[in-house]
Recover the amino acids of this structure.
């Protein structure tokens, strides 16, 4: 048997196009060929189950091998095999509609997966690295003859009689000079570890050395010897393919260590398993997240029928869950997935919504089951939850029942609980409930204590995302405002009808204002004399809540860069009812007035952590003189 012919395509430039456009992703060839071998193996097993194949299945291990001297890579399976006619049908006919359309569509292409998937070029990705490809195959069908197919990278092929004696297919790639990097054990091992680590059929790649027991020595101690065993690179039944009822915590933790060997144990995990209206399995882990808002290198891995596709999953997983770890496997997502597919496919959106719901349900379940344990984990999971509340309305609906607010005393409350706690005492004259918050409890301690004297509660909002979460709360919580505890004096933060009256006359107030403006001598600070409690500080330096919040959001990249570039401006509130202000007015000389005013102002700066450098040195020197 011998036949020559021309591959049925509409251009003779198909192979240069493949090599040109797929070059940056050329390691994909091994994934494609091994996946094809797995498919062929799975099919013969299925036929045997259905009684349509009565022969012995035998060992169905797929083998990947290379020969550096001969410059070949070989992938061998014991699957269905092919007849000569099937080779013509499945190999020689590349389904694409025309050279002009192809070249035009992909002239600027950067995504090799998109090209492969669009035109069914999985097998032909072999020509990214090979100058010649041989197929030596024998079909499972009774009486079938072995066949050999050879192609040198042109559109011409040759089919001749093969010499294979057992069912299956052997594909040999004669590697071209530009791709000899693949004739390396560790390079190939790395690609197999990446793409084939969890394939459902054993994949052998050479051998490895293992130590096994070899009896005992004269002292009764175990002896060991080294033996060569098959190097099986994959786990054929990873935990996401199993029922949760068959798994223990140790299984989930062991799998996590297999995925991310150097990581701490996760906090908890979610086992995904749905078969309608789409197919999806997987395990998502909640890791301990450092409070630096950096996306972890340990990303969620996307599989299709246990073949690794990518760890860029932002179109499948809700953005707020990108900090999770683990795996997702869906046969509804093609192996050669492209970004455009993910954005357009209806199942992807359903998967996204399903994952959001599962995560919300899991968090709600943990909270109800053991609130104390949930609270202990809040510092680690709060970032996920707050991000989800901000970015996903469906998650926010469920999340209000397990989202916690923490105050400066370390107490935790759900959103409804906190509203009930503070609404009675922290409601202003306009009927707005005011949530006070601190971003740095140590730095803002004076303001927290001032609020405490009025029995006001202060929340701690010190995570990187809290500037956005504050905006979210104000949007969702009716007649609720959040104000940073050092954004103004406490009586102005929560304005009541019974505010203190300024006991200074208008003339005295103007004089005090003039003295302090002279002492401060800066356009950055605007001075105002106000009637406050005598127990408050004589001088308070604050930044307007709106401006401070915009600057915080600008630092987080919240689209407020305009505010971030603006200079800092502060309000200086002079407590006209404080004895120190009376002392300033009664000072013997103008110089003494200025010095006392500067001292009171510097104390206010010091309480905000704003007194630095030369000003701090002068303050210390002046303090010694005043003692």
């Amino acid at each position: 048997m011998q036949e020559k012919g021309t591959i049925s395509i509409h251009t003779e430039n198909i192979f240069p196009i493949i090599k040109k456009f797929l070059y940056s992703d050329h390691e994909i060839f091994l994934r494609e060929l091994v996946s094809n071998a797995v498919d062929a193996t799975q099919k013969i097993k299925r036929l045997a189950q259905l009684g349509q194949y009565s022969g012995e299945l035998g060992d169905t291990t797929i083998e990947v091998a290379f020969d550096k001297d001969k410059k070949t890579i070989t992938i061998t399976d014991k699957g269905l095999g092919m007849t000569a006619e099937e080779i013509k049908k499945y190999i020689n006919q590349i389904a694409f509609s025309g050279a002009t359309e192809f070249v035009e569509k992909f002239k600027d292409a950067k995504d090799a997966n998109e090209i492969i998937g669009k035109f069914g070029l999985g097998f032909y990705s072999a020509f990214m690295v090979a100058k010649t490809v041989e197929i030596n195959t024998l079909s499972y069908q009774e009486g079938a003859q072995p066949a050999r197919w050879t192609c040198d990278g042109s559109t011409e092929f040759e089919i001749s009689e093969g010499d294979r004696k057992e069912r299956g297919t052997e594909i040999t790639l004669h590697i071209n000079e530009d791709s000899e990097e693949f004739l390396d054990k560790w390079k190939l091992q790395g690609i197999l570890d990446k793409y084939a680590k969890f394939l459902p059929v054993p994949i052998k790649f050479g051998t490895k050395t293992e130590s096994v027991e070899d009896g005992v020595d004269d002292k009764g101690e175990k002896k060991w010897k080294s033996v060569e065993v098959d190097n099986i690179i994959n786990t054929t039944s990873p935990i996401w393919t199993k029922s949760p009822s068959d798994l223990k915590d140790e299984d989930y933790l062991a799998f996590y260590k297999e995925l991310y060997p150097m990581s701490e144990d996760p906090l908890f995990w979610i086992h995904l398993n749905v078969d309608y209206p789409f197919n999806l399995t997987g395990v998502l882990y909640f890791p301990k997240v450092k409070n630096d808002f950096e996306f972890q290198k340990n990303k969620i891995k996307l599989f299709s029928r246990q073949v690794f596709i990518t760890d860029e999953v932002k179109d499948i997983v809700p953005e707020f869950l990108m900090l999770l770890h683990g795996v997702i496997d869906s046969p509804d997502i093609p192996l050669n997935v492209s970004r455009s597919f993910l954005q357009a496919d209806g199942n992807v959106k359903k998967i996204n919504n399903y994952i959001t719901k599962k995560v919300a349900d899991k968090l709600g379940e943990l909270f109800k089951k053991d609130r104390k344990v949930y609270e202990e984990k809040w510092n680690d999971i709060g970032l996920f939850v707050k991000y989800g509340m901000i970015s996903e309305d469906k998650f926010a609906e469920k999340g209000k029942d397990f989202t916690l607010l923490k105050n400066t005393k370390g107490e935790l409350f759900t959103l409804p609980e906190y509203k009930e706690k503070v609404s009675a005492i922290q409601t202003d004259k306009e009927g707005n409930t005011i949530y006070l918050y601190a971003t740095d409890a140590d730095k803002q301690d004076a303001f927290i204590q001032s609020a405490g004297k009025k029995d006001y509660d202060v929340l701690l909002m010190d995570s990187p995302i809290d500037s956005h979460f504050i905006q979210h709360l104000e949007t969702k919580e009716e007649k609720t405002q959040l104000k940073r505890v050092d954004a103004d004096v406490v009586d102005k933060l929560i304005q009541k009808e019974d505010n203190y009256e300024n006991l200074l006359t208008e003339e005295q107030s103007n004089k005090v204002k003039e003295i302090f403006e002279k002492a401060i001598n800066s356009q950055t600070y605007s001075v105002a004399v106000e009637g406050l409690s005598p127990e408050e500080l004589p001088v308070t330096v604050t930044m307007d809540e709106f401006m401070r919040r915009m600057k915080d959001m600008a630092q987080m990249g919240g689209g407020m860069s305009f505010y971030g570039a603006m200079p800092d401006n502060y309000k200086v509130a002079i407590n006209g009812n404080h004895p120190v202000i009376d002392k300033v007015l009664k000072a013997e000389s103008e110089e003494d007035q200025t010095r006392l005013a500067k001292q009171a102002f510097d104390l206010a700066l010091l309480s905000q952590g704003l007194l630095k450098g030369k000003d701090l040195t002068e303050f210390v020197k002046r303090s010694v003189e005043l003692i």
